[in-house]
From TrEMBL:
Alphabetic keyword roster: Acyltransferase, Glycoprotein, Golgi apparatus, Membrane, Transferase, Transmembrane, Transmembrane helix
Catalytic activity line of the entry: CMP-N-acetyl-beta-neuraminate + acetyl-CoA = CMP-N-acetyl-9-O-acetyl-beta-neuraminate + CoA; a ganglioside GD3 (d18:1(4E)) + acetyl-CoA = a ganglioside Ac-O-7-GD3(d18:1(4E)) + CoA; CMP-N-acetyl-beta-neuraminate + acetyl-CoA = CMP-N-acetyl-7-O-acetyl-beta-neuraminate + CoA
UniProt protein name: N-acetylneuraminate (7)9-O-acetyltransferase
Membrane topology: Multi-pass membrane protein
Gene name of the encoded protein: Casd1
Molecular function GO terms recorded: N-acetylneuraminate 9-O-acetyltransferase activity
Example GO biological process: carbohydrate metabolic process
Enzyme class: transferase
Pfam families associated with the record: Cas1_AcylT (PF07779), NXPE4_C (PF24536)
Lineage: Eukaryota, Metazoa, Chordata, Craniata, Vertebrata
Length: 754
C-alpha cells in the first residue's frame, strides 16, 4: 500500500476519530496556529467564490488567521479581509452561470489580478430557484462545461479547488428548501466531477476536486441548525484541510505528512548509503571466499585410505573484519527500513487519538503477562541486576503505550510518565555511582564503552534520518549525566570504597563533593543564561541545539535536574548500610527488623499514593513541571522500598519485563521512526484498515529490530573499543577527527540552506 499521493487522499477520503478529530486516509494533518498560517499565506491573494456554504467556509478559513473575525449577514455580495499582507475575498455567485464565468474569465485575461488560491462551488441555489427541475441540471452541466477550461487555465499558475455540494438533512429543511434533496445534490456533484475530470485529463494543470467535505457532512449534518449549512466544527475541519493542502509543502510541519514531498537526500545521507552498500558487498565477498575454502578443505580425501580427512578447523574462522562487515551489513538493511518507514513516503501515517481505553487496557494486559513470567532471582540484593532490568522493562513498555496512544494530552498520565523518565535517570545515578565507588575504575576504556553503547544508534540515526543529536533528547541527557557523575568522582581527590573503609573522613569528603554538585545543579537550573553560554560553544552548540537554540535542551535537563543526584546519594547510603551490615539481604528476609520494615512499608505506600493523588489532581502542566524535580524522588524511593523490603518480593522478578529491560534504550530510540511515524508525532501504518492487526505487525518488527540493534551495538563495542590503551587512544583520535569533520560539514550545509 503506497502512501505517496497523499494530497488526493486528503481531499477525498478519511474518517473521524471520536467526534471532532478528522483523520485523512494515509497521512497526518497538521493543526495550524494563526502565526503559522500567516507565515504560509503572506503576500497571497485568496478568493472564495460561490454560495452561502462557500461563504461559511471563507469565514472559517480567515478565522485561522484571525480568530476575532465575526460573521456578518446572510446575503453579502462581496467580503474582504486583510491580515498581515494577506488578501482574502469572498465573491457572491450562488449559481454557476454567465456571471460566474465572466468573473473567472477576467482572471485568465489579466484584466484583474489573478488570485493565488481559488475556492469555488455552487449548486443548491440552482436546485432551489428552479424547483429541482431536470432542465436546471442540464443547464448546470452546460455552464460548468463552459467554465472548466477557464479553471484549468488558472490551475497552471494558481491552486484551484472545486468544492462539491454537501448532503443536507432533509427532515430539518424549511419548506422553501424542501426541493433540495440528497438525490439532486448527488446528480449535480456527479456532473461536476465528470466534467472537471474530463476537462483536465490531458493536462498537467488540474482543478482539485474538494470532495472530502461530503464525508465530513455525512457524519455531522444532523447537528446543523437549518439542515443545509454545516455546524461550525465541520466547517473548521474543512478550512484546516484546505490549509494543509496548500501550506504543508511550504511550511513542512513534522506532524503534517499530507501533501509533503519526500525530502531530498543530503550528501551525508548519500555517503552513508554508499558506506552500507560497500559493507554489504564486502561481507558477501569475504563470506563467499570463506565458504569456498571451507568446501575445499571438507572435500579433501586420503587417496590411500579412501577416507575423508578432517580439516584442521571444522568451521571457518570469523575474522574481526568479517564480524565488522557482518554487523554493518545488518545495520545497513535495518537503516534502509528506517528510511523507508519515516522518510520515503512509502508507508502511510496517521495521527494519534487518545482515549482512556487505548492506554489503560494495554497497560493491564502487559502487567498480567509480566506476572505470568515470574522467576527467582540469582541474588537477593537491593536493586539486583534482574530487578533493575525488570524495572526498566515495564517502565519502557508503559512509555511505549503512552506514546502510541497519545496519552500526553491527559495530564495525570503525563505526570506519572514523567516519574518513569526520572526513574531511568535515577538508575543512571545509582548504577554509575555504584560502579565507580566499588570498582574504582576511572579508566578510558570504561568511559568509551559506556559512551559507545549509549550513543552509537543515535549517531547513526542522525546521519541516516538527517536529524540533530538533540532530537533524541534522552540519549544526550543520560550521556551528559554520565560524564557529570564521572567528573564528580574522578577529579581529585578520587574517593572510592576501598579508600573510605580505612578512614571515615573520606565519607565526609565524598559528601562534600556531592554538595558541590548539588550547588552547581541548583545554580544552572535558575540561570538559563549561564547554562546557554556553556552549551553555545562549538561543537557543543552543534550537538545540543534544536531549531537554532538550546532552550529545548535546557528545559529537558531542568525537568529532572535533581533525580540523578538523588540516585547517587541513595547508592552511597545503601552501600554504606550494606558495608556495616545494617540491612539483611538474605533470601526471604525483610531488609530491616519487622517493626522497622512494617513502618517503612506503611510510609512508602502512603507516599506513593500521595504523589499519585497530587499528580492526578494537576490542573496546570507548567506549575506541575516546576514541582516535579523536587517531588518525583518521593514516588521513586517509595517504589524501591515497597519492591525490596519484603524478602519474598525481593527474591522474584518478571523475566518478561527483564527481557525488554535489556533492550530498553534501543526500544526508546527505535520507536521514533519504525513504530511511531513523523518523528513520533503520528503512527506508522503498514496495514491500512486494520488498526489492531497493524499494531501487532509493526510492534513485532519494531521489537525484533531493537533486539538486533542491541546485539549489533554489543558486537561493535568489542571491536571499536579495545582494552589496549594505546590502540584505544589512536582510535579515539580518528573518531574525534571524523566527527569534527562531520560537524563542520553539517554546519556548512546548514549555512548553505539558510
Amino acid at each position: 500500500f503506497k502512501g505517496g499521493d497523499t494530497c488526493e487522499y486528503l481531499l477525498s477520503s478519511g474518517r473521524f476519530l471520536g467526534e471532532k478529530v478528522w483523520q485523512p486516509h494515509s497521512c497526518m494533518m497538521h493543526k495550524y496556529k494563526n502565526s503559522e498560517a500567516k507565515n504560509c499565506l503572506i503576500d497571497k491573494h485568496v478568493v472564495f467564490i460561490g454560495d452561502s456554504r462557500i461563504r461559511q467556509l471563507f469565514y472559517s478559513f480567515i478565522k485561522l488567521l484571525n480568530p476575532q473575525v465575526k460573521e456578518e449577514g446572510n446575503k453579502v455580495s462581496y467580503l474582504q479581509s486583510k491580515s498581515a499582507f494577506i488578501l482574502q475575498d469572498f465573491l457572491w455567485y450562488p449559481e454557476v452561470n454567465g456571471s460566474m464565468r465572466q468573473r473567472i474569465k477576467s482572471w485568465t485575461e489579466g484584466s484583474v489580478a489573478k488570485p493565488h488560491i481559488i475556492v469555488a462551488g455552487a449548486a443548491t441555489w440552482s436546485i432551489k430557484i428552479h424547483n429541482g427541475s431536470n432542465e436546471a441540471l442540464t443547464q448546470y452541466k452546460i455552464n460548468i462545461t463552459s467554465i472548466a477550461p477557464l479553471l484549468e487555465k488558472l490551475a497552471k499558475s494558481s491552486d484551484v479547488y472545486w468544492v462539491l455540494q454537501d448532503p443536507v438533512y432533509e427532515d430539518m429543511l424549511s419548506e422553501s428548501r424542501k426541493m433540495i434533496t440528497n438525490e439532486k445534490i448527488d446528480a449535480y456533484n456527479e456532473a461536476a466531477v465528470r466534467i472537471l475530470n474530463s476537462s483536465s485529463r490531458n493536462s498537467k494543470a488540474k482543478v482539485k476536486v474538494f470532495s472530502v467535505s461530503k464525508l465530513i457532512a455525512q457524519e455531522t449534518i444532523m447537528k446543523s441548525a437549518d439542515g443545509l449549512h454545516l455546524p461550525e466544527s465541520s466547517r473548521d475541519t474543512n478550512a484546516m484541510i484546505l490549509m494543509n493542502v496548500y501550506c504543508n509543502k511550504i511550511m513542512k510541519p513534522i506532524d503534517g505528512s499530507c501533501c509533503q514531498p519526500q525530502p531530498p537526500l543530503t550528501l551525508i545521507q548519500k555517503l552513508a548509503f554508499c558506506f552500507f552498500t560497500l559493507s554489504i558487498i564486502g561481507y558477501l565477498i569475504i563470506n563467499l571466499i570463506h565458504r569456498n575454502n571451507f568446501r575445499k578443505n571438507k572435500s579433501c580425501t586420503d587417496l590411500e585410505s579412501g577416507e575423508e580427512k578432517k580439516p584442521a578447523i571444522s568451521t571457518p574462522n570469523v575474522s574481526t573484519l568479517e564480524m565488522l562487515l557482518h554487523s554493518f551489513c545488518k545495520l545497513g538493511l535495518i537503516m534502509t527500513y528506517f528510511y523507508l518507514c519515516d522518510r520515503a513516503n512509502l508507508f502511510m501515517k496517521e495521527n494519534k487519538f487518545y482515549t482512556h481505553s487505548s492506554f489503560f487496557i494495554p497497560i493491564v494486559y502487559i502487567l498480567v503477562l509480566g506476572v505470568f513470567y515470574t522467576e527467582n532471582t540469582k541474588e537477593t540484593k537491593v536493586l539486583n541486576r534482574e530487578q533493575t532490568d525488570e524495572w526498566k522493562g515495564w517502565m519502557q513498555l508503559v512509555i511505549l503505550i503512552y506514546h502510541i496512544s497519545g496519552a500526553s494530552t491527559f495530564l495525570p498520565v503525563y505526570m506519572h510518565i514523567r516519574v518513569l523518565v526520572a526513574a531511568y535517570l535515577f538508575q543512571t545515578g545509582y548504577g554509575h555511582f555504584s560502579y565507580f565507588w566499588i570498582k574504582g575504575d576511572f579508566g578510558v576504556y570504561r568511559v568509551c564503552q559506556v559512551l559507545f553503547r549509549l550513543n552509537f544508534l543515535v549517531v547513526v540515526l542522525c546521519i541516516v534520518m538527517d536529524r540533530p543529536y538533540q532530537f533524541y533528547y534522552f540519549v544526550p541527557l543520560v550521556t551528559v549525566w554520565f560524564m557529570i557523575i564521572y567528573a564528580t568522582l574522578a577529579i581529585w581527590p578520587q574517593i572510592v570504597q576501598k579508600k573510605a573503609n580505612g578512614n571515615c573522613l573520606w565519607h565526609f569528603g565524598l559528601l562534600l563533593k556531592l554538595i558541590c554538585l548539588l550547588t552547581c545543579i541548583y545554580f544552572l537550573s535558575y540561570s538559563q543564561g549561564a547554562f546557554e553560554k556553556i552549551f553555545s560553544f562549538w561543537p557543543l552548540s552543534k550537538c545540543f541545539e534544536l531549531n537554532g537554540n538550546v532552550y529545548e535542551w535546557w528545559f529537558r535537563w531542568k525537568l529532572d535536574r535533581y533525580v540523578v543526584f538523588h540516585g547517587m546519594l541513595f547508592a552511597f547510603i545503601y552501600l554504606a548500610l550494606q558495608k556495616r551490615q545494617m540491612i539483611s539481604e538474605g533470601k526471604g528476609d525483610p531488609l530491616f527488623s519487622n517493626r522497622v520494615s512494617n513502618g517503612l512499608l506503611f510510609i512508602s505506600i502512603v507516599s506513593f499514593l500521595t504523589y499519585s493523588i497530587w499528580a492526578s489532581s494537576c490542573k496546570n502542566k507548567t506549575e506541575c513541571n516546576e514541582l516535579h524535580p523536587s517531588v518525583s524522588v518521593m514516588q521513586i524511593l517509595a517504589f524501591i522500598l515497597i519492591r525490596n523490603i519484603p524478602g519474598y518480593v525481593r527474591s522474584v522478578y518478571s523475566s518478561f519485563f527483564a527481557w525488554f529491560g535489556k533492550i530498553s534504550l534501543e526500544l526508546f530510540i527505535c520507536q521514533y521512526h519504525i513504530w511511531l511515524a513523523a518523528d513520533t508525532k503520528g503512527i506508522l501504518v503498514l496495514i491500512p484498515g486494520y488498526p489492531m492487526f497493524n499494531v501487532l505487525v509493526s510492534t513485532f518488527i519494531f521489537v525484533c529490530v531493537a533486539h538486533e540493534i542491541s546485539q549489533i551495538t554489543n558486537d561493535l563495542a568489542q571491536i571499536v573499543v579495545p582494552k589496549d590503551n594505546s590502540t584505544l587512544l589512536k582510535r579515539l583520535l580518528c573518531i574525534a577527527g571524523f566527527f569534527s569533520g562531520l560537524l563542520l560539514f553539517s554546519a556548512m550545509q546548514d549555512q548553505s540552506r539558510h
